[in-house]
């Protein structure tokens, strides 16, 4: 009896060690995988606050919470099952999906740059305009539009992360992606919630006396600039990440010239250290992302001019 109990405890200890090891693998894999999606994360953080701009401050956090819930559903119930299924039955499809996602990132980034230079018309970025008569209908429309936009951004986050998961165990792969889904959702929308309430905090502080009031007024005045900086960083990150994804995925499919060119350029500056290598790779990926995205943007502009004419014929 004692021997059986000892054996059982030994089995439990072994299982606990295996579980702890798996959790370590999941955490490490999630950190590595999610780091590659930084461009999309920044863009997601820059985009979301615009949905609650101009609304009753008391409704900002509830709406962000509903959008976050929709984002988590997008990742776990739609994107993850489809992505995992494709990796199991058609792994060759992942580079193609990544090229599509990287091209979309490049297009979005390039369109923003070209629009700032007045070389491209401003394009609708957040889906349908919300027309409603009651506050509840307005909120439902906002959440629906934001969730649709999030589906695209979340798909890119999950696909980019999945492409960087190196674990061989299917259970660990699933665990990593579930961890990424929760972490990315809470990180993005938690940060968004903090950002959109900073001006409210500033207004409250401004009502007090002394240095606190001055800090509050400064906070209110600086927040628009913070969102502007986030938008610029997000655009740059989209071009860099989008260009890198397309180049790397084309190489995975056997088209190596672009990847070889970047490698040769990085080799030229490797004597200057890791920072120089990273800067060169990032710069070339960003330039390619801008060129590739501009090509797609103008092609899309041409197509969009033709489609409405046919639709109204």
UniProtKB/TrEMBL annotation:
GO terms for cellular component: plasma membrane. The chain crosses the membrane at residues 76-100, 174-196, 226-247, 282-301. Keywords: Membrane, Transmembrane, Transmembrane helix. InterPro entries: YedI. It holds the Pfam family DUF808. It comes from the Bacteria. This is DNA repair protein MutK. It comes from Schaalia hyovaginalis.
